[in-house]
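Q: Okay, next protein. This is Prepilin-type N-terminal cleavage/methylation domain-containing protein from Erysipelothrix inopinata. I've checked the sequence twice, so it should be correct. Can you predict the 3D structure?
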Amino acid sequence: MSKKGFTLLEMMTVLFVIGVLMMLCLLSIHIYVSTDPTSKLHYLQLKAMYERKSQIHSTSLWFNKNGNVNHAQSILTNGYSCTIQLGFGRFNCEKR
């Protein structure tokens, strides 16, 4: 038998370690994105334009199929004050 390759156990160990490291990296990215209030608004706006149907954030705020908001307003979320403007659905969030 040739000694030029890796054993199955060595290969499985390396793949396991790589898998665990990738899961930890993706988990930390998800936690960072989910705490940012603008990320959810951007996500809903892009999803509305991609799927060509309205996406609801709350009872008073939703994005139509073009990515525009239903009306201009200010909302408070997670310690941020977000001002949403009419037109293209642009918004600005500042920490309070």
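A: Here is a summary of the prediction. The chain has a mean pLDDT of 84. DSSP finds two helices and five strands in the chain.
Q: Noted. On to the next one.
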